[in-house]
Every structure is written in structure tokens, then in C-alpha cells.
What we know:
Protein name (chain B): ABC transporter
Number of helices of chain A: 8
Keywords (chain A): Membrane, Transmembrane, Transmembrane helix
Helix content of chain B: 25-40%
Number of domains of chain B: 2
Distance between the termini of chain A: 32 Å
Strand order of the largest sheet of chain B: 6-7-8-3-9-10
Strand content of chain B: 25-35%
Largest sheet of chain B: 6 strands, mixed
Distance between the termini of chain B: 28 Å
CATH topology of the largest domain in chain B: Rossmann fold
Helix content of chain A: over 70%
Largest sheet of chain A: none
Number of strands of chain B: 14
Order of helices and strands of chain B: EEEHEEHEHHHEHEHEEHEHEEHEHH
CATH superfamily of the largest domain in chain B: P-loop containing nucleotide triphosphate hydrolases
Number of helices of chain B: 12
Structural class of chain B: alpha/beta
Radius of gyration of chain B: 22 Å
Structural class of chain A: mainly alpha
Organism (chain B): Paractinoplanes deccanensis
Oligomer: heterodimer
Keywords (chain B): ATP-binding, Nucleotide-binding
Number of strands of chain A: 0
CATH class of the largest domain in chain B: Alpha Beta
Largest interface: A-B, 25 and 32 residues
InterPro entries (chain B): AAA+_ATPase, ABC_transporter-like_ATP-bd, P-loop_NTPase
Number of domains of chain A: 1
Shape of chain A: elongated
Shape of chain B: elongated
CATH architecture of the largest domain in chain B: 3-Layer(aba) Sandwich
Strand content of chain A: under 5%
Amino acid sequence: MTVFGTLARIYRPILLWFGAIILAVEAIGLVVIGNTVGPSKFSFWIVMAGAALKYWPLVAGILLISLHLRLFVANGVTRGEFLGGLAMFGVALTALLAAVVTAGHGVESLLLGALDLRGPDYPVFTLTGAPAEFGHLLPGSMAYMVTGMLVTAGFYRFNPWIGVLLIIPGAIPLAVADNLVKFDQFGETIDRLPYGTALVLTLAVIVGGFLVLYRVMRDTPIRRTSG
Amino acid sequence: MSIEIRDLTVRYGRTVAVDSVGLDLAGGKIYGLLGRNGSGKTSLLSAIASYRKPSAGVVLIDGEEAYENPRVARRTCFIRDTLDLSDSDRLRSALDLAARLRPTWDQPYAEKLLDVFQIDPGKRVSALSRGQRSAFGVVLGLAARTPLTILDESYLGMDAVARTLFYRELLADYLEHPRTIILSTHLIEEVADLFERVIIMDRGRVIVHDETDALRGRGVTVTGPYEAVTAFAAGRVILGEQTLGGVRAVTLDGHVDPGEIERGEAAGLSFGPIGIQDLFVHLTSQPLEASR
């Protein structure tokens, strides 16, 4: 819990700032759309926060390996302990973000409805549809985070040339999630496979990716920074 | 904390940085680790601190294998010459993190050391000079109060005043909170008085591990007429020699009996001790086989 709690403490202010920026952009975006285009045909919140839900964990995954592993080991935490805490933190963070994006969609839908700015194609939020929305958003977020970790691990553990080559297998979780479980700004989902099967496959790739990360990083030397 | 190192080898590709090293370090002492650039000091320390997995061999700390051992990791602090922080980190954040993760962290002592070294904790790492970075490393290393503290060339960039403060604080804190400290350095004579034992590495091997006082008397310089010096040195390990005209000076490894000194002096020879730095220079400037 020490690693989890410490990472949560480190990322809390960053998340709050990021959240405030997203809210400000959403507010500005809705005002601009409302005054120029008229009733919205899509969820601006899902465009923006949905993208943030993927790319923020991707960047966080990169930073967690490239910066924080070293910090924790230098303070008496083993790699194994760090990676265990990192897994817990990753699940909690992406679940929180997916919940916030789902709830934010609800607020946006409510607000646009009240202002009569919901276009006919707008994906109206419903409480009964919320679990499915959350269930489509969360795996994607987790997959992006694991991809960020895996890609960085390739560069951290091996030399840059091998790191470049390992970007491709590192991106597998991301690619699988994008092609199996997706929820877009029009409320569309991908139905290549039944949701249960798609979810199981995506989670299997995510867990597999993390196990590969664990295997690669458990023996990695702690690199120096430039002096 | 006692350290046992068995057949430790650290390789980087084809380069052997540490070559089958075996060492027993008793707990509660200050060790000086000396060696030329590239001799394997940092690689050895990295293996002891589990920053790097040994290519072969094992490091046991208090009888437990050190690598990826949480009990050992909690009680070990390794400060490298390059700080393990990001340039954008504020020093206060680094101190907070250490306080949160280190069970033995002493925050008042850390604050005191910041005052001693005149470091503003509100600064970012990138705003520190080379000497201030080193001093901050010393703050992190000493305030962690871990039973095993490893400082790898922690004086780099420090001016004479800062180095003196560092040595003073290190000794004072060690006397108040005895623990195992390993200090690697090139400034041998400056810190030799701190060391209880000295380890000298050369080309990946430990060539000397002895009490500091024993090392001081380990070598002897013999100067005198060429023939007399040559006769005296016969059968002994010569660490170095100089000849000027008919006068020869040799540095001999090992103790010389008082009786031999008396006979030597009667033959016109003069004897002098060599310092640890001289011994280090002699030992590490010889071909490997001669230095063993």
C-alpha cells in the first residue's frame, strides 16, 4: 500500500489540475458549439475527456517507469514491490478516470438537454446505459496505460534500437482495446465480437502485457541520470 | 549490517566490470572503497545495493540474499554521484518522498544538514550547482539513517569547505548512530582518517582489503646506494622503483622487521613509510598480476 499511496499522493495534484483544464475546455467548447453550430450532434465531453482517458494514462505509464521506478528504488522499495503497487495504482487510476468520464457525459447530457442544445444524434446518457459505457471505456484506458509502460520498459531495459523495435509488441494492448472495446462521441460501440468475449480478450492482453512488463523490469538495472 | 560477497561478477556485454570478487565486510564500520576510474567500484556498489543484478555470484546482507529483498532494501541507502532525482523535482518533494518511504528517516536531521550545506529545499534539482547536488545527496544519505549507507563519490563538485563539513557530519553522525558506511572516493588522503578499513579495486578485482592502520605500515620506501637497495629488495614484492645515478629508491610491499631495518640502515639505507594514496598509486599502476 505504500507504493500505491505514495503514487496517489504524487499524482493527486496533477490530476486535479488536469481535471480543471478539461472542465474549462469543455465549458468553452460547449459555449462555442452552442453559439456557432447549434444543437450538438455528438458528445464534446466524450471527444475530449474520452481522448484524455486514453492518452493521459499512456503518458502516466511512460512516466511511472522512466521516472518513478528509480525514485522508489532509491528510497528502499524493491522493483517487485514497485510493480505490484503500480498495478494497483493503474487499475484504480483508470477506473477513477473512466467513472469520471462516464459521469461527465451524464452531466453534459443533462445540461445540453436542459438548454435544448441536444441534437437528434447526440448520445443521450441514461443510467441504465452507464455501466456499459463505463465497461467500454475502462479497458481502453487500462490498455493505453499498459502500452505506455511497455514501450518505456523497452527503452529503459534495452538499448534505444531494441526499444524502437519493441514499440510494436508494446502497442498490442492498445491496438486490441481500440479494435474490440470502444465507445465514441456518437455513442457507437464496436461489435466485432460479443462484449463479454471482447472484454475477456482485452483484459487477457492487458494482464499479459503487465506480466511481460513485470518480467522485463524485475531484473532491470536502475539507470543513472545525467550528472 | 554485515556484507558477504561471494564470487560476484558484473558484466556489461563483453566487458567484465567486477570479476569474481569475494569480500566479507563486518557491520558497524566505515569502509573506504578506492580504485581508479573504471576499476569497478560503482558496479560493485550497485550490486551491493541491488541497483544491478549480479551476472554471477551473490551478495548476502546480514546473511540474506540482497537482490530484490524488501527487508534488505529498506535498510540500505545508496547515493550515487548523479542524484536519482529528476531535474524538475523540488528538493522538498524528494525529502517528503524519503520521509514517506524510509522507516528510519530523520527529518529534523535532514533540515539541520540542509542548513549546514546552505541548501534551499524550495529549489528544483536543476537549479543546484554540481557541489550542491552532491551535498543534497549527502543529506539524503545521512538523514536516511539506514544501517547500510553507501556513498559513491559523494564529494564531486564540492568545494573544500563543503567537503570538510561533509566529513565532519559523516563522522559525527556515525559516532552517534553507528552503522555500516561504504564511501568510494578518489580523494584518498583527505578522507583516509575516516576509514576503518580500506578496499582497493583494480580492473574489476579487489586487490587489497585491510585495516587502514595496517595499510599505512604495509609498504616501506627504501632509498640508498643502488647495489645495497637491490640486495635488500631481493625476494620481496617491489611495488615501484626510481633510479637516479647510483641511488635507487624502491617501494616494497609488506612489513619489514626492525632488525632488518637496523641492518639496512647500517648498510647506508634509509627507510620511510608510504601513505595510503602512495600505496594505492603503486598498486593500481602495476600490471594486474604484479599487484595481486
